[in-house]
Amino acid sequence: MTPLSRDRTRVLVQSLAGRRVLVVGDVMLDHFLFGRVQRLSPEAPVPVVEYDHDQFRPGGAANVAMNLAALGAEVALVGVIGDDDSGTRLRDLLTAGGVRADGLIGDASRCTTRKLRIVTQRQQQVARVDFESDRDVDGTVAETIVGAIDGQVGAAALVVVSDYLKGCITSVTMARVAEACAARGVPLLVDPKISHLDLYRGVTLITPNLGEAETATHSRIRTDADAAVAARRLRDRLGCASVVITRGEQGMWVLDGTRTPPIEANFAATAVEVSDVTGAGDTVISTLALALAAQASLVEAAQLAAVAAGIAVGRFGPVAVTRAELEARLEAHGW
Fold this sequence. Notes:
Elements: H1 6-15, E1 20-25, E2 27-40, E3 47-60, H2 61-70, E4 74-82, H3 85-96, E5 99-107, E6 114-120, E7 124-131, H4 139-153, E8 158-162, H5 171-184, E9 188-191, E10 205-206, H6 210-217, H7 224-238, E11 242-246, E12 252-256, E13 263-267, H8 280-293, H9 298-312, H10 323-332
Parallel strand pairs: 1-4, 1-8, 2-6, 4-5, 8-9, 9-10, 10-11
Antiparallel strand pairs: 2-3, 6-7, 11-12, 12-13
Helix pairs in contact: 1-10, 2-8, 4-5, 6-7, 8-9, 9-10
């Protein structure tokens, strides 16, 4: 596959700014507790962590929104949070990152999803504690979410659904997103979870990772040929236009069903050194979405997404990749 030319790359990256994108999905707060380990506990064979400091970052669908904003998009986010300090902190982080967060619906009956990671020297993770309620939203909260979706889709060039199985994406909310997008001709991209696979019928693009694609197609994906077969099976099952399978160090397999004949190709990973893969999938779908909103082809969008993912995995934890960072890495690649 011919790489993007320097001129075309420059045009696309400049066109990312100002595109309106709606993100719907499971938001969470990533909480990192950093400390030092110098001894084991006398009470049990576990390390004693001497506390140093905390860090908080938006995670899940909130990380998708932050990546989009960092790349220059105008982003609205719809999701559910608890009536708690974590929800307030998450909303503040999103607002500071340029994300419109008035679509975050408070639910006093649940806690904001928070993942507490205890991290020691050399960014080694000792343990993770999850605070969450993953039951499906219902009642007034579900109705409010549907209303927020209806109110936001009309202004969006593209919609991203980020499903982490934490209760926001249900058969009702997914159907409403799909109906609203179809009625307005708005492309709909989904970062999926396999237990919800059949909810995504008819979407524009689905972006499973390698494990998800293998589970969904009951197959092993070891080669490009395997990936091609799996992508076709997913497209046929869901009736979606296109499929992108993220394959870690093997890059990503793209099936662009909007072209006749369909375009199928693999795009190599670009990471120089992998530090942490957390949030890499969020970076991929964010870059794909915004590039498509800027009128890139899926093949062009995938090339940009591969570069952005290479930046993301070189850093610790979920961190939004900025447009300036993407431009610098593209320049280093000679694009």
